TrEMBL record:
Protein-lysine N-methyltransferase that methylates both histones and non-histone proteins, including p53/TP53 and RB1. Specifically trimethylates histone H3 'Lys-4' (H3K4me3) in vivo. The activity requires interaction with HSP90alpha. Shows even higher methyltransferase activity on p53/TP53. Monomethylates 'Lys-370' of p53/TP53, leading to decreased DNA-binding activity and subsequent transcriptional regulation activity of p53/TP53. Monomethylates RB1 at 'Lys-860'. SMART domains: SET. One of its GO terms (molecular function) is histone H3K4 trimethyltransferase activity. GO terms for biological process: heart contraction; methylation. The lineage of its organism: Eukaryota, Metazoa, Chordata, Craniata, Vertebrata. InterPro entries: H3K4_H4K5_MeTrfase, SET_dom, SET_dom_sf, TPR-like_helical_dom_sf, Znf_MYND. Keywords: Chromatin regulator, Cytoplasm, Metal-binding, Methyltransferase, Nucleus, S-adenosyl-L-methionine, Transcription, Transcription regulation, Transferase, Zinc, Zinc-finger. This is [histone H3]-lysine(4) N-trimethyltransferase. GO terms for cellular component: cytosol; nucleus. It holds the Pfam family zf-MYND. Residues 54-92 form the MYND-type domain. It catalyses: L-lysyl-[protein] + S-adenosyl-L-methionine = N(6)-methyl-L-lysyl-[protein] + S-adenosyl-L-homocysteine + H(+); L-lysyl(4)-[histone H3] + 3 S-adenosyl-L-methionine = N(6),N(6),N(6)-trimethyl-L-lysyl(4)-[histone H3] + 3 S-adenosyl-L-homocysteine + 3 H(+).
Length: 441
């Protein structure tokens, strides 16, 4: 019908009261149902995964073949190499020219590919059945000086690395495109939530945010899949989560305002029902801490988190790992004077410590942290959370690696129970985990 809302099977675009455009269901979805799938409009494999994943289809396998020219990109076979060539040729010659000086950020690489695609892709793609990329919000009127400077640095880097190989739009259009990608882009992650690359999925970007979401987004190679994690009735809006939901309401909204320029008014943010458990204070203290003391400790925790994030840029330097472990232990000791171990700031630091232990291959210590994390995660996160599944998965694989087979298999089964809903029972990640378990029997 003329003027009808854009729709795909099972859902359609609509105007959501107080939120602008969004997506609502037109049929009933059960928990675990695939609501819709969206191929990436454009995507790029992260540099750190080169040689482990195919540049074109993101398949993870051994013995990939490298590009004969740049010797940087790896592929499953000739078909994948040919499939990627329209995009890879943009970088291939430039990587050869710049050598070790080739260092555009992942966002710059992604935007360059979008510009190239827009040159030859005039029709709407299968990624834009509900929302076209050109309709993305940029929120340039709301960006602060720091974000504006980052945008300008990105535009300068794109001109520097790509000007000989790409017809670059004028500066205003370029700044707009970077802002659109920063607000609407996605990071593709694997089953353990390791970063694989960046992409734009326009139809997925149309969904609004909730801290109590009814759908989850997972990835099958370069396709985003949206699955129901609650019962969804016809007419009900689809809500995804844009952020890590571990933290209390104030922190979540701070992150949403900073990155997406809105404050969430979902039921969880209105009732703050999980905040008390997330901010658990130690029970056996002689005197109850004053609110100012708690706030001071939260500020300390946030500063440590930021310090840790900066230090991780140097994780390839081994001595730094010992420094990071030390930072974690000291901060846990200090925060533990007020916070319970289940407090989300304690959990954040344990997660960082576990990551460093994994990097240092200190498996026993990594397990100790993982065991402390997994139960509180199950309480703080919503049902069918990827954060909980990935923690069970890491722990299960660690147990198996240390020949603790019964524990390993039991823990991996808990991961699979969540992943069956989040990824779908036929996902290759689940097949791989089941194979790991069979090899132990």
């Amino acid at each position: 019908a003329q003027g009808a809302s854009p729709r795909i099977e099972g859902c359609e675009r609509f105007l959501s009261v107080g939120k602008g455009r969004g997506i609502k269901a037109t049929t009933h979805f059960k928990v675990g149902d695939l609501v819709f799938a969206c191929p990436a409009y454009s995507y790029v494999l992260t540099v750190n995964e080169r040689g482990c994943h195919c540049e074109f289809c993101f398949t993870r396998k051994d013995a990939l073949s490298k590009c004969g020219k740049c010797k940087q990109a790896y592929y499953c076979n000739v078909e994948c190499q040919k499939g990627d060539w329209p995009m890879h040729k943009l970088e291939c010659s430039a990587m050869c020219s710049y050598g070790e000086n080739w260092c555009p950020s992942e966002t710059v690489r992604l935007v360059a590919r979008i510009i190239l695609k827009q040159k030859f892709q005039t029709e709407k793609t299968q990624s834009e059945r509900l929302l076209s990329l050109k309709e993305f919000e940029a929120h340039l009127d709301k960006t602060d000086n720091e974000k504006n400077e980052m945008n300008l640095a990105d535009t300068a880097a794109l001109r520097h690395f790509y000007s000989q190989h790409l017809d670059i739009p004028n500066n205003d259009a370029l700044v707009q495109l970077f802002a659109q990608v920063n607000c609407n882009g996605f990071t593709i992650e694997d089953e353990e939530l390791s970063h694989l690359g960046s992409a734009v999925f326009p139809d997925v970007a149309l969904m609004n945010h909730s801290c109590s979401p009814n759908v989850i987004v997972t990835y099958k190679n370069t396709v985003a899949e949206v699955r129901a994690v609650r019962e969804i009735s016809p007419g009900e809006e689809l809500f995804n989560s844009y952020i890590d939901l571990l933290y209390p309401t104030e922190d979540r909204n701070e992150r949403l305002r900073d990155s997406y320029f809105f404050t969430c008014d979902c039921e969880e943010c209105t009732t703050k029902s999980k905040d008390k458990a997330k901010m658990e204070i130690r029970q056996n203290l002689c005197t109850v801490p004053e609110p100012e003391e708690i706030q001071e400790m939260v500020r300390y925790a946030k500063n440590i988190i930021e310090e840790f994030r900066r230090a991780k840029h140097y994780k390839n330097i081994l001595p730094c790992s010992f420094i990071l472990v030390g930072i974690c232990e000291l901060s846990l000791e200090k925060m533990g004077s007020i916070f319970e171990e289940t407090n989300v700031y304690m959990l954040h630091m344990m997660y960082q410590a576990m990551g460093v232990c994994l990097y240092m291959q200190d498996w026993e210590e990594a397990i100790k942290y993982g065991e402390k994390l997994v139960k509180p995660y199950s309480v703080h996160y919503p049902p069918y959370s990827l954060n909980v599944a990935s923690m069970y998965l890491k722990l299960g694989r660690l147990y198996l690696g240390l020949q603790k087979k019964p524990q390993g298999v039991k823990t991996l089964k808990k991961a699979i129970a969540i992943m069956n809903v989040a990824f779908g029972q036929d996902h290759h990640y689940i097949t791989e985990i089941k194979k790991e378990m069979e090899e132990q029997e």
